[in-house]
Specification:
Blueprint lengths: L1 H13 L12 H9 L1 H22 L4 H16 L2 H13 L5 H9 L5 H22 L4 H24 L8 H6 L9 H14 L3 H29 L4 H25 L3
Helix pairs in contact: 1-2, 3-4, 3-8, 4-7, 5-6, 5-7, 5-12, 7-12, 8-11, 8-12, 10-11, 11-12
């Protein structure tokens, strides 16, 4: 029951899907929320894949429409919470100020020019990848779309626990303080189960999962080092930016995979 409540906490914090019940916010339930980050991502990805499949196979609309629906779904279902983090972190990063000043910039509710430019680049690039993929759709494509948020949320959970907090308050610190040394032990089990599910489908999917995993680990290693030097540690905004950045890299990976591995 605590696992379910932890998952529902994630829906309340990280999606626009209404959960009209009051949930406990003690450390035990927040720790379960961290454990279910990847499950939240998989549910989100499943919704994206279903919508994409529906428009492509069950409607007379064009692939452009399918790409637009998928692109908008990622914005609407998350409520733009990670996009907000991307803009705030971009404003701070491109200010080229010291760490303390960057943290102050991220607290500012106003969005600067760099935040606006960065969100335009992020969303337009993501739409490009989705549109290109829409022209090369294969049965495995929908599976890969479903696991993109799975891996991005997993990276978010690892960064949250493995990188020190830059400040003593905020959403990121709230979750981090609820964790313990065993919190992330469940993540490898999720990956094993994902491989098991893929083994029943196509070999092509197994190769794709391996590629996604390698890419995620590489991005994670880079962020683990750079976040400290850029911001002095992890914040909620930086976590949100990491989710968006990770997903963009995985969309690019899927785009390349369709051209060079899926034919």
């Amino acid at each position: 029951m605590k696992w379910l409540k932890g998952l529902l906490i994630n829906f309340q914090f990280f999606t626009s899907i209404p959960i009209p019940i009051e949930l406990p916010m003690d450390k035990d339930h927040l720790e379960k929320a961290i454990k279910t980050f990847p499950l939240l991502g998989l549910i989100q990805g499943g919704i994206y894949a279903f919508l994409f499949y529906t428009v492509i196979h069950w409607t007379p609309f064009s692939v452009l429409t399918a790409a637009l629906v998928l692109w908008l779904a990622g914005i609407i279902i998350t409520g733009g919470i990670h996009l907000d983090g991307w803009m705030d972190a971009s404003d701070a990063f491109f200010s080229y100020r010291d760490r303390e000043k960057r943290l102050e910039i991220m607290k500012d509710p106003r969005t600067g020019a760099f935040g606006v430019l960065s969100i335009i680049v992020l969303l337009s690039t993501k739409f490009f990848f989705i549109y290109e993929i829409s022209h090369k759709v294969q049965p495995a494509t929908f599976f890969f779309i479903a696991i993109i948020p799975f891996f991005s949320k997993m990276v978010m959970g690892v960064l949250l626990l493995k990188v020190k907090a830059a400040k003593k308050e905020g959403l990121g610190t709230l979750f981090k303080n609820a964790s313990n040394k065993r919190t992330l032990f469940i993540y490898p089990i999720y990956v094993i189960l994902l491989f098991a599910a893929a083994a029943m489908l196509f070999n092509q999917i197994i190769v794709g999962i391996i590629v996604f995993m390698i890419v995620s680990i590489l991005v994670l290693l880079i962020l683990t080092k750079k976040v400290i030097s850029w911001f002095g540690g992890m914040t909620g905004d930086v976590l949100g930016a990491s989710v968006e950045g990770m997903e963009l890299v995985l969309w690019m990976t899927l785009w390349l995979f369709h051209y060079f591995a899926m034919g």
